[in-house]
């Protein structure tokens, strides 16, 4: 039974939630495991017209036979996680008996959120983060002063670690009200409620692999937000690429069979940073944003929108070792008279087909476009590739050719059945 990673291949918001949900519905998935990020993610799943936005719990939770794991690579905001659990349980989903949280996962503390927001208020340091404390929590992890889920079970240790953190951060937190006793009390209470779900997730998932279960490893954000390979410093602080699944869950690379890359049929980005194919015209931005409902699932911010970028896509295929690709939101382009695909970047008079490593070059390059006729037809009710309008087929096949990875699935709407499987 395969172990498959599902990764975002642009700047996040590609529709990974729907793909995970769909695979769970169709292919007897036993486990879905999240490996990085935190409540900065917002995975939207629509089932029978009801919309669920999951920030921390893996998208498989809507399927009663699926076990859901949160790996050591995730940074957890415990109150948000508890809120999500309660909300799902109030809608009659059983969560606690199917959720395992790594004892080693780091905890987002109130001061991480304060530090994130205060850094963002400095115009020289502004990244456009989600303000959920993600960066500061990963900084503490790497600095070896972080607080882990297991620490919420030990009052004395937690007090000691909190005192150390507040002392070290005192100069940054100076005017903010941070009360050690209040944090201690709140977090011990969260720890008590979450204790039944704490597990050695690495051991669990390796046992599941040995038992031959069908497993999905769920990435959040996207390849171009990767802290090493994204458009640094305009990135998140974790590793959303396929390699992150190994370190974020404690499994070896030899255990992974497939890597499914999820792309939107166009490109979006939230926050600051270069975006070569961003629409120059307000006309396209407004329409695609409205048709694609391109507003952040976590922050509600309007997303920046642009054409499909083949340079980024090829890079994502390489860095993740994609074995197949899914393209989502094709229907958003249904009404356009023409569509464009970026096939290269003009840099100093040369045409470059690989993503430059230098941010300044990515920022200043001129995208080279191929213009194709649009299909100007509603695709939301189509379920077979051959029934798509010819121009839509040509558009998808051209993308597949550029990325050089087999196209397996096209999504034409948010519902599960609005999906086309490709041969
Ligand atoms: P952070 O992850 O909150 O630190 O934000 C860093 C960058 O990643 C910002 O540009 C965010 O807008 C972006 N980002 C973080 N999470 C997501 C996501 O789930 N979708 C899209 N962009 C995200």
Automatic annotation (TrEMBL):
Active site: 13, 43, 141
PANTHER family to which the protein is assigned, alphabetical: ADENYLOSUCCINATE SYNTHETASE (PTHR11846:SF0)
Annotated localization: Cytoplasm
Keyword ATP-binding: no
SUPFAM superfamilies in UniProt: P-loop containing nucleoside triphosphate hydrolases
InterPro entries reported for this sequence: Adenylosuccin_syn_GTP-bd, Adenylosuccin_syn_Lys_AS, Adenylosuccinate_synth_dom1, Adenylosuccinate_synth_dom2, Adenylosuccinate_synth_dom3, Adenylosuccinate_synthetase, P-loop_NTPase
Any one Pfam family match given in the protein's UniProt record, by short name: Adenylsucc_synt
Alphabetized HAMAP family for the sequence: Adenylosucc_synth (MF_00011)
SUBUNIT field: Homodimer.
Principal cellular location given in the protein's record: cytoplasm
EC number(s) given by UniProt: 6.3.4.4
GO molecular function, a single term: magnesium ion binding
Annotated CDD domains: AdSS
Name of the protein: Adenylosuccinate synthetase
Catalytically driven reaction(s): IMP + L-aspartate + GTP = N(6)-(1,2-dicarboxyethyl)-AMP + GDP + phosphate + 2 H(+)
Residues annotated to bind IMP: 13-16, 40-43, 130, 144, 221, 236, 301
Cofactor field: Mg(2+)
Keyword Zinc: no
Chain's role: Plays an important role in the de novo pathway of purine nucleotide biosynthesis. Catalyzes the first committed step in the biosynthesis of AMP from IMP.
Chain positions recorded as GTP binding sites: 12-18, 42-44, 303, 329-331, 411-413
UniProt source species: Candidatus Kuenenbacteria bacterium CG2_30_39_24
UniProt binding sites for Mg(2+): 13, 42
GO cellular component: cytoplasm
Binding site for substrate: 297-303
């Amino acid at each position: 039974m395969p172990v498959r990673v599902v990764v975002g291949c642009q700047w996040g918001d590609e529709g990974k939630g729907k793909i995970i949900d769909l695979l769970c519905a169709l292919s007897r998935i036993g486990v879905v495991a999240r490996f990085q990020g935190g409540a900065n993610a917002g995975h939207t799943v629509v089932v029978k017209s009801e919309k669920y936005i999951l920030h921390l719990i893996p998208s498989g939770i809507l399927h009663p036979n699926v076990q859901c794991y949160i790996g050591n690579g995730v940074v957890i905001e415990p109150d948000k996680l508890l809120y999500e659990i309660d909300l799902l349980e109030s809608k009659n989903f059983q969560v606690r008996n199917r959720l395992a949280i790594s004892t080693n996962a780091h905890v987002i503390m109130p001061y991480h959120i304060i530090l994130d927001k205060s850094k963002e208020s400095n115009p020289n340091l502004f990244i456009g983060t989600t303000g959920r404390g993600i960066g500061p929590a990963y900084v503490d992890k790497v600095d070896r002063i972080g607080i882990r889920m297991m620490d919420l079970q030990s009052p004395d240790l937690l007090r000691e670690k909190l005192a150390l953190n507040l002392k070290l951060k005192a100069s940054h937190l100076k005017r903010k009200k941070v009360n050690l006793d209040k944090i201690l009390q709140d977090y011990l209470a969260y720890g008590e409620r979450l204790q039944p779900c704490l597990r050695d997730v690495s051991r669990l998932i390796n046992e599941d692999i040995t038992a031959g279960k069908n497993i999905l490893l769920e990435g959040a954000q996207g390849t171009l937000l990767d802290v090493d390979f994204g458009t640094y410093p305009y990135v998140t602080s974790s590793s959303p690429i396929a390699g992150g699944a190994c370190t974020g869950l404690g499994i070896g690379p030899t255990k992974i069979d497939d890597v499914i890359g999820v792309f939107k049929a166009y490109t979006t980005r939230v926050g600051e940073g270069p975006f070569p194919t961003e629409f120059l015209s307000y006309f396209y931005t407004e329409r695609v944003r409205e048709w694609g409902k391109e507003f952040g699932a976590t922050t509600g911010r309007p997303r920046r929108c642009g054409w499909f970028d083949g340079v980024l896509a090829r890079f994502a295929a390489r860095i993740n070792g994609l074995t197949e690709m899914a393209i989502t939101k094709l229907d958003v382009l249904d009404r356009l008279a023409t569509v464009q695909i970026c096939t290269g970047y003009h840099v100093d008079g040369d045409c470059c087909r690989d993503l430059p490593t230098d941010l300044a070059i990515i920022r200043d390059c001129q995208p080279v476009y191929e213009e194709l006729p649009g299909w100007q037809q509603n695709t939301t009710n189509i379920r077979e590739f051959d029934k798509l309008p010819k121009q839509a087929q040509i558009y998808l096949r051209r993308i597949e050719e550029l990325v050089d990875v087999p196209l397996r699935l096209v999504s034409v709407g948010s519902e599960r059945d609005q999906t086309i499987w490709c041969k």
